[in-house]
């Protein structure tokens, strides 16, 4: 089961999060130009992505954030799919620590979740297992597969940048939400 991930533009993501995406253009612009909104945008992105506010501010003019890296756009896309508006309100107005998931935790959940012990053993001992895992990660994170090879020789992938742990956590939450809807 694949999710449609496009790397949402920051402005559209923030409009969705603050529930102003349905307003007429004039009202939307009025909201977006208020000081409170701009402050909330930086705070929200900082919380969702698990990074410092000054990093978010360095990405350019608020609310466009033209310099936002691709990984952050992908993470925001997964967060939008994973979090309901109520959950986003809690993120906006309460303390929040961005969820994290190691590469191995993500792989175990996606590849082994409902398998028997013998099925798990069969998959994990296959000569294509490492390649399958790295393909799963590169598809999810939207990075070239050869990039994931540089993160380590074992499946712990200890050199995977920490920012991707947040992406994997939101991606898994989005997959779970999609599975519930499909059931």
Walkthrough of the structure:
With 183 residues, the protein is an all-alpha fold. It folds into two domains: 10-93, no CATH class; 103-161, no CATH class. Helices cover 62% and strands 0% of the residues. The protein has eleven helices and no strands. The chain has helices at residues 10-17, 25-32, 35-49, 53-57, 70-82, 85-93, 103-112, 117-124, 129-141, 145-149, 163-182. α1 (10-17) runs parallel beside α5. The longest helix has 20 residues, at 163-182. The radius of gyration is 18 Å and the shape is elongated. The two termini are 13 Å apart. The model has no long low-confidence stretch (mean pLDDT 91).
Write the layout of secondary structure elements.
Blueprint lengths: L9 H8 L7 H8 L2 H15 L3 H5 L12 H13 L2 H9 L9 H10 L4 H8 L4 H13 L3 H5 L13 H20 L1
Helix pairs in contact: 1-5, 5-11, 7-11
